[in-house]
């Protein structure tokens, strides 16, 4: 646990004595991967014997309040300690279980933070409501100076805003236009008011207007499309939108998948906002794995990661990306660049699919394009003319290609083979990991919101999943039995028997010996 960082937040000479730092760091870890509330964590710290045993606490006169726990949670967030915990816990488990990391699989999964999902009209209305609440509280005169009908529209609670409004499409369109005009009026009214420019509610007002609306010929209009990288709720301004899965965040998981491993562990967890592209996340995943010394030789991923750029990036790290080629495949029976004989070193075309040599084939290094001229007479008489990608007319027959196009066509041809399908089958296993992490640790719907809190929770839950998987592994159980046998000179049979009966925690003389193995008892 990162107590060296935590202790820097406390003065060694004055102030109230702190809680034992290892126990508090461990409690934050246990809280996340068990999906406890603050109240649950405090109760476990004071009364649960297994938690006290794991955290090396006495069983009497243990006290903790929620405010103290919240302070340590703040320290974890502000110092980004969750990533360090994940890295060190995972590295220890990989070494202890002798994990084979040469084969891995990669996927992302969606994460909902603790916020309400708003439509566009309600998002604008709630943003206005919260800003007007601040104006009324801090500048009553300015609030009273606003138009009465505007104040009345947002006087109801957030849950009852426009509750009586008609639900038909024309009425909803008029309502959306009205709140957009109200939004613009408030942005303009307080644009020069220094007392409100620094407030988060006014900044949210300006951001929502910029993302959702525009002024066209002095008229406020709601944008037809906004994209995904826009605010979804002023309570969680960092959350964005995924067109398939909705508002929130996501996390990139890379998991071992070697059949030789007794259990598969998540070796990389990178949180992102929901609008982030899976394809663009691969370089960050490779860099993180490289920094930990866990780069795979083979990485299986779905089509979203399978761009040529990602294949080349993986090759630069000594990793082979096993992923389908994105994009529409050619029509059945059509020739591709894979059917031509091409010198990969020079990119020059040597023969067409019918075995005819070109008149010329020249590669332009500046543009990366190879221009190949075929004999028009030969092409006109060719039986494969309708299937060939060579562009033909009465004067010329030409083929332009790039190295990227050639590689894509080669990969597309290879992915139709039984060998590729057999290698790629193992990727689907990470879907069960995504489901399991959400089900066992609460990753699907977090108890927090805000980028720092969400990212910390995601990474700690991933580390907790690894602990759970390792604790259920027979290899780990054998390691425990062996250590028991070595420590007390017992026979292997006696150690295995006591472990199965769960007698360790009942023997006070054994407590100290087994604190290092306490994760097995959680």
SSE layout and pairings?
Layout: H1 3-6, H2 21-33, H3 38-47, H4 49-54, H5 66-78, H6 81-96, E1 103-111, H7 120-138, H8 140-145, H9 148-153, H10 169-189, H11 194-197, H12 200-212, E2 213-216, E3 219-222, E4 240-242, E5 246-256, E6 266-273, H13 278-292, E7 298-300, H14 308-316, E8 320-322, E9 341-342, E10 349-351, E11 360-364, E12 369-374, H15 376-380, E13 391-392, E14 397-402, H16 403-414, H17 418-424, H18 429-441, H19 451-471, H20 474-488, H21 492-501
Parallel strand pairs: 1-7, 7-8
Antiparallel strand pairs: 1-5, 2-3, 4-5, 5-6, 9-10, 11-12, 12-14, 13-14
Helix pairs in contact: 2-3, 2-19, 6-19, 7-10, 7-12, 10-12, 20-21
SS class? alpha+beta
Radius of gyration: 31 Å
Q: Which consecutive residue ranges, at least 5 long each, have pLDDT under 50? A: 503-522
Count every beta strand, where a strand is a DSSP E run of 2 or more residues: 14
Gross morphology is: flat
Assess the beta-strand content as a share of residues. 5-15%
Write a concise synopsis of the structure shown.
The protein has 522 residues and is of the alpha+beta class.
What would you note in describing this structure?
There is one protein chain. It contains 21 helices and 14 strands. The two termini are 17 Å apart. Mean pLDDT is 87; it is low at 503-522. The longest helix has 21 residues, at 169-189. The chain is α+β, with helices and mostly antiparallel strands. α2 (21-33) crosses α3. β4 and β5 form a beta hairpin. It has helices at 3-6, 21-33, 38-47, 49-54, 66-78, 81-96, 120-138, 140-145, 148-153, 169-189, 194-197, 200-212, 278-292, 308-316, 376-380, 403-414, 418-424, 429-441, 451-471, 474-488, 492-501; strands at residues 103-111, 213-216, 219-222, 240-242, 246-256, 266-273, 298-300, 320-322, 341-342, 349-351, 360-364, 369-374, 391-392, 397-402. Strands 1, 4, 5, 6, 7 and 8 form a 6-stranded mixed beta sheet that branches.
């Amino acid at each position: 646990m990162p107590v060296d960082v935590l202790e820097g937040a406390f003065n060694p000479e004055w102030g109230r004595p702190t809680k034992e730092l290892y126990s508090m760091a461990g409690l934050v870890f246990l809280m996340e991967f068990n999906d406890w509330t603050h109240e649950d964590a405090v109760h476990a710290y004071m009364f649960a014997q297994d938690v006290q045993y794991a955290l090396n606490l006495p069983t009497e006169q243990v006290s903790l309040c929620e405010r103290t726990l919240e302070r340590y949670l703040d320290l974890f967030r502000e110092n980004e300690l969750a990533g360090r915990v994940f890295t060190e816990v995972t590295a220890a488990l990989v070494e202890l279980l002798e994990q084979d990391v040469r084969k891995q699989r990669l996927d992302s999964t969606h994460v909902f933070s603790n916020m309400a999902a708003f439509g566009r009209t309600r998002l604008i209305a709630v943003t206005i409501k919260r800003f007007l609440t601040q104006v009324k509280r801090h500048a009553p005169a300015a609030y009273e100076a606003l138009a009465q009908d505007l104040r009345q529209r947002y006087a109801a609670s957030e849950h009852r805003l426009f509750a009586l409004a008609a639900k038909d499409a024309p009425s909803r369109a008029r309502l959306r236009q009205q709140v957009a005009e109200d939004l613009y009026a408030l942005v303009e009214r307080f644009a020069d008011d220094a007392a409100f420019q620094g407030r988060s509610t006014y900044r949210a007002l300006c951001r929502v207007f910029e993302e959702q609306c525009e002024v066209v010929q002095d008229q406020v209009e709601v944008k037809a499309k906004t994209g995904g990288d826009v605010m979804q709720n002023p309570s969680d301004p960092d959350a964005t939108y995924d067109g398939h899965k909705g508002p929130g965040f996501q996390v990139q998981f890379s998991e071992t998948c070697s059949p030789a491993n007794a259990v598969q562990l998540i070796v990389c967890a990178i949180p992102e906002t929901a609008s982030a592209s899976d394809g663009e996340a691969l370089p960050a995943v490779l860099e993180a794995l490289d920094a930990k010394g866990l780069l795979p030789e083979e990485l299986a991923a779905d089509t979203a990661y399978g761009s040529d750029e990602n294949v080349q990036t993986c090759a630069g790290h000594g990793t082979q990306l096993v992923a389908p080629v994105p994009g529409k495949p050619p029509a059945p029976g059509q020739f591709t660049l894979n059917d031509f004989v091409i010198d990969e070193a020079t990119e020059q075309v040597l023969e067409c699919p019918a075995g005819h040599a070109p008149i010329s084939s020249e590669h332009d290094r500046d543009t990366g394009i190879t221009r190949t001229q075929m004999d028009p007479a030969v092409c006109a008489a060719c039986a494969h003319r309708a299937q060939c990608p060579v562009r033909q007319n009465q004067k010329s027959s030409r083929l332009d290609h790039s190295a990227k196009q050639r590689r894509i066509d080669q990969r597309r041809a290879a992915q139709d083979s039984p060998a590729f399908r057999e290698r790629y089958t193992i990727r689907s296993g990470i879907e069960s990991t995504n489901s399991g992490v959400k089900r066992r640790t609460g990753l699907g719907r977090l108890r927090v919101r805000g980028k720092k809190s969400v990212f910390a929770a995601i990474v700690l839950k991933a580390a907790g999943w690894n602990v759970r998987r390792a604790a259920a592994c027979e290899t780990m159980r054998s390691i425990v039995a062996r250590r028991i046998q070595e420590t007390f000179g017992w026979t292997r049979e006696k150690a295995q028997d006591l472990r199965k009966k769960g007698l360790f925690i009942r023997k006070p003389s054994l407590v100290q010996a087994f604190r290092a193995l306490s994760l097995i008892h959680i």
